[in-house]
Design brief:
90 residues
Amino acid sequence: MSVTTVRLQAEVEQQLEAIASRLERSKGWVINQALSEYIEKQHLQQERWKQTLDAMESAAQGKVVDASEVHNWLNSWGAEKEQDAPRSGK
């Protein structure tokens, strides 16, 4: 495990100490958990952005599904003859 030095604002330091105390954990543990969650959130946002760009490219190429087909599919959810998800014609 490596060591990194971070300068914290006084208010952040106080809140960090309070959280660590309440959880009966070290400040390092709390910081590690917080950074792990932040990194995962950033990864998910990056993946969503990539998916958005891919979807926009598909739409620009005309790979779309008519709204009525989507509504019919959604309305079939839970029905005895639930429909498969519609696919673009291209």
